[in-house]
Each structure stands twice: as C-alpha cells, then as structure tokens.
Amino acid sequence: xxxxxWAGRSWTLRGARTEYxxxxxxxxxxxxxxxxxxxxxxxGPSPVSYDGPTPFLTSGDSAPVEYxxxxxxxxxxxxxxxxxxxxxxxxxxxxQEATGDEHRLAVTFADPVSGLRTVVHYEIPAGTDxxxxxxxxxxxxxxxxxxxxxxxxxxxxxTPHGARLSYQWGQWAQEFQLDHVxxxxxxxxxxxxxxxPGHLYVPWLAIRDQAEPVGAxxxxxxxxxxxxEITAERDTGGLTRVRVGRHLPDGPLDLPAGASLSLPVxxxxxxxxxxxxxxRVWHQYxxxxxxxxxxxxxxxxxSWEATYFSVDAExxxxxxxxxxxxxxxxxxxxxxxxxxxxxxxxxxxxxxxDPAKFPAGxxxxxxxxxxxxxxxxxxxxxECVSPRSTLYAEHPDWVYAIEGRPITPIRNQYLLDLGRPxxxxxVHSTVxxxxxxxxISYLKWDFNRPRTEPGRGTGSQVPVAGxxxxxxxxxxxxxxxxxxxxxxxxxxxxxxxxxxxxRTDLAMAARSDVFWPSDNTGPLDRLAIQxxxxxxxxPHLLSSWVTDAPGLFDPxxxxxxxxxxxxxxxxxxxxxxxxxxSPQDRAEAATWIARYKEIREIIVHGTVHLIGGPDQSRCAxxxxxxxxxxxxxxxxxxxxxxxxxxxxSRPVRLPLHGLDPVATYRGGEHRYSGSHLQAVGLPVHWTAxxxxxxxxxxxx
Length: 700
Ligand code: DGJ
Fold this sequence. Notes:
Layout: E1 10-14, E2 18-23, E3 32-38, H1 59-62, E4 80-83, E5 94-100, E6 104-110, E7 116-123, E8 130-139, E9 145-158, E10 163-169, E11 177-183, E12 186-192, E13 204-209, E14 217-223, E15 228-234, E16 239-246, E17 253-255, E18 260-262, E19 265-271, H2 274-290, E20 300-302, H3 304-307, H4 313-326, E21 330-333, H5 362-371, E22 375-380, E23 384-385, H6 390-394, E24 414-415, H7 421-437, E25 442-445, H8 470-488, E26 493-496, H9 506-509, E27 514-515, H10 523-536, E28 543-546, H11 560-567, E29 571-574, H12 583-605, E30 607-612, E31 619-624, E32 630-636, E33 652-654, E34 664-667, E35 670-673, H13 674-679, E36 682-684, E37 692-699
Parallel strand pairs: 20-21, 20-29, 21-22, 22-25, 25-26, 26-27, 28-29
Antiparallel strand pairs: 1-2, 2-3, 4-9, 5-6, 6-7, 7-8, 8-18, 8-19, 9-16, 9-17, 10-11, 10-13, 12-15, 13-14, 14-19, 15-16, 23-24, 30-31, 31-32, 32-37, 33-36, 34-35, 34-37
Helix pairs in contact: 4-5, 7-8, 11-12
The structure holds (2R,3S,4R,5S)-2-(hydroxymethyl)piperidine-3,4,5-triol.
The site of (2R,3S,4R,5S)-2-(hydroxymethyl)piperidine-3,4,5-triol (DGJ) has 11 residues, from loops.
C-alpha cells in the first residue's frame, strides 16, 4: 500500500537518518509497519506489506503486525497473550486514537469485552537512529486479567533472500561471542530465564537479508535486566518478524481491575552500513543515554587478580603506590575487604570493613590511598548473602526460597529477594551508607549468581499468597536503587558487573557508567570478547584491564604492548600484580597510560569502525574524532608470531573509513591521503615482538 492509502491513519517518526512509518488498516484491529529504513523509504510501495492471496491464512498471518494478540494472529505468534477470568485468551481490540509528533507516537487500542486498554508507544530520540518501543496495559474492566505473554514489540524486517541473523552467545569467561546463523524458514530464539540477562546470550540481535552482507541491517535490543526472550521467525513470503520482551519465569502477571502495567522498552536500530554501521547506531544511542556523564572514566587499578580475597592494608597500599607512579587515577579494592571474607564461603551481607585487614581503620587506609593522589573505589555485591553471615542468621527469610525445600547455593551464596521492600531498603541503605561514610568515588557492583528458587520466603511485608512477579520486582528495585545512588552521589562512577558480563543491557547502560564484560583478560580471548561487545556497546562502557601474562584463561603469549593497546579500546585499567613488574615493564606501562590519557576523549566520543576481526589476519578499531581532524587506530596481530617480520611479506593494510579522501593525514613520519588510507589501507608491520599498534593520525 502507498502511504496515502491509509486514510490518514499512518504516522512517520524521523531520526537523524532513519524513518519508521506505521499505520492502522481500515479494519482498525492492529497497527502495522509500512516501512523502516533511511529517510524517504516510506515514499513508495511498502517493502513489508503483502496484499496477494492468502489461501488457508488469515490476513493477520501475512500482515507486518507491529504488536498483536492471538486474535490478530501475527505469523510469528502473538506479542501479548492476556487471559480473562473465564480463561478466554482471544483478546481482540480496536483502534481508538493516536497522538504524537515527528519523534513520538502513542496509539491506543481497546477491547470492550475484557476491558484491556493498550497503548503502543514509539519514540525516536532526536539525533539518533533508534526507535524505542514500549507498551502500557490498563485493565479498565472489573475482573483481574492475567498477562501470559508480555512482549514489548514485534519488529518486521524484509528478508526476501533469507535472513542472516547475528547474535552473541557465551558463558562465564567467554561472553559476547559474535556469531551468525542463516534462517531460511522457521524460528531462532535466544533468551534467559535466570532473572538476569545472563552469560549465555546478549539481549541483542541483528538482522539483514542474506543477499545484502554489508548493506541494510536492522537491530533489536531490550532494556530489561531480568529474564528475556528474543525470537526471530521468517515466513514463507520473506518477512522476518522479531518478537522481543520479557520472559515470565514466575508465571503470568496479574493485572487487577483498574491497574496498569508498563512493559520494558525494546529498541530497534537501523543502519545502511552493515553490522559495523549498526554498532555506531547503538554507540550513539548509549552515548545519549549517558548524557552529561559521558566523559572519560578514570584509569583504574583493580586488586582482584593480584590479591584475590587476601586483601589487607599493607598489600593494597603496596599496589597503590606503584599504581600511582604509573599514572593510575583510581584504586579499586575488589572482593575480600569486609568481615568474614577470607574466601568465597562467607561474609556477603556483612558489609563492614574487616578490622583485622585494616588495623589502623578503613578510613585511615583510604586516606593513605588518597594521599598518593588516587581516588578510591570499592567492590560490593549487595544482592547476595553468604549462609555463613550475620545478615543471613538474622534474616533467613530474605532470600529466594521455596518452603520445605533446600536452597540452591551457587558460589556458596544465596540471593536476596530484592523485590521485598525491606530488602531493597537494606541494599540501598547499605551501599548509600558506604558511600556516605567513606571517601569513595568508584563503585563496582557485582552479582555472582543467578536466581534459582522461584519462591518468596515467609514474613514478607508483601503477601506471599498468590503469584508474585519476583523477576519484575527485583529488576524494578535494582533500577530504582541505581537511580537513587546516581542522584545522591553524582560524582561516584558505577561499574556494573555480574561475574563478568552477565548484566549488560540497555537499562543498565542507562544507569551505570561502565560494564565489566568478562573475567577473562587473556589477550586473544579478550580480543574476541571485546570485538563482540563493541558491536552492541559503546567504548565508554567497556572496562578492560591489563593483566599478567600468561593469562588465567588464555595463555597464548602476547606482549605488554598488546595487552595495553587492547585495554585502551575502552576504559583502561590494570589488574596485574604490578608489585612483580620489572622497572622496564613499569616504565613501559607509564608510557602507555600517558598515551591513553592523550587519546581517551577520542575513544569516548569518536566514531567507531571495526576493522577485520579476531579470527582474521587483521583486527583493528578506528576511532575518528567528532571534528574528523584526528583518527586513533588500535591494531592487533592475531596470527602466529613465529617468523613475523623475518619471512618475506608485505605489511598488513588496515582499510580506514569515513575520512576526507582529498585531505592529507600525518601519522608519525608518514603522510597519506585519505583516499589511500581508505582504498589501500594504513600499513602495519608486525614482528615477533611487535604485535600491537596505537597509531594517531592528524589531518593536515
Ligand atoms: C566476579 C567479577 O567479575 C570479578 O572481577 C571479581 O570482582 C570477583 N567477582 C570477585 O568476587
């Protein structure tokens, strides 16, 4: 259908380079996509509509339905399933009204039988190429409704030659593995039922037509820090529909008479420039989410790998003194600083500094760190509790549990039921208290176990009878606590961590300053992790440490330079036991840190191009400064090192992007035209000892 055939019931939202047009057909039973792509894409026949014969099908089976119940029957299944008190699930609604402007749209549907009123919201934040979508449900009837499936959105993507899906899988210490699957027909699902986004998959998916490997690419991600699901299904006519939303491990959500419920924001992204271009769209959006907090994070030292749980004032100060000499700005004491924590069997919940470890007092210790010119940071894991702790002895009912059954320990710890107001109050006041009592300017908030027990302990202020949306309540309070901490302690940088990267979603990107993506800092493993991470996340969110070689997980040898250049791809930190570094290593480290400080504004604000990949002979990241006058290139030698530089060979060429072809760029002694750098590439010469490069080019 052409746009003018919608009888005034079509709306176009516009972003920086993208537009998104939806319409309500004459029957008024759903909202459908008209076009999603570059400006002007809606002016012509819709690339996703189907108006041919539909033998054996309903029109809903073939329509690009935006948000449907099972009465509409979108081919990939309904986004929303609501059950009435009589068990009727065929909620069917009619269009009521729409309000909005070029950046916002709210379309209302109502079902007179069940009393369900649904507002489908859209927003393209000015200057971005993402469309935010969420749904508000209101029960205007007089009986409770049960939300059985709570999808946030359906996104329709034209894939006439087959869909190529890109997704990220992982496990602990191997997160963000970028992979691809070709979907001819049928569906593909990723998700989590762990009450946390999880290590296994990232709530992120990219979709493109198989015949367009580097062209138009669409992305979908979810701003939800609990259980989730993304399903892509391709129909026989070449349309891929992606459903995205919460997964409900606690069963249906009750929507009592008169109540409203907002479902999480799902975000769609479009780029004409493949996966790499799509990464830039996500980066730009996350930079907007960071707002005024988008500035270089401090260069930090974290003591975890150097001392593990054997923290004490003496060893921390020994590390801090060296860190200060190297140019580090913030010293973070990781796990092990509080009472009852000689190892991972106790202590969680009792957030008091251990006087045996800090005999002169914790504040005196912090003052000594501060006197070295360093800011001070602290690790916490406030949602967890050790069975061997005072907190658990006093409040055994605060943890997720099923009465009469044993609780599943993971890493020797239980999980607090943060959805309970008294628990949320404890967690907030504990962290808030630490920030008020001590001179802390960096907080690492960890979460080392998913939820297992789908039950609430007795004695809660919130009724146990009936179903409780444990997942939703936990996430809502987690978000609220983060928001309150940021409001009350605006100078504190918050790092979100969950045993590595199990809690990285768009909702956390809006509430924390940086993510810890993985416990694996082994050079080549880390390169693959960061490569996947940067496809979905901006560099200011990428916390990365230089650790000792050989690494804990990946012993493949790489130079100190390689490890520094790798950690400079985001927020540079050091996690090595620098007490054992030689004077040469320390001098080299100081040089790298100084160089990082010179380029970090460009890392944070620059336009990113991902060049090659960790499995290819060339792998680099290009950051182009907003004024396009400077370009930073970080490059790594990913192949075998033996023979490099000795065998006859030509330099590796890194094709750069987005330069002025007629301008000249200077890099060290060399001069190149923009055209040469783009068409031929920046040369890098690898040798057995020279396996990474930081090159800064200036336009002259
Ligand atoms: C898991 C984190 O990912 C690590 O960096 C470290 O903080 C440990 N937890 C501490 O227990």
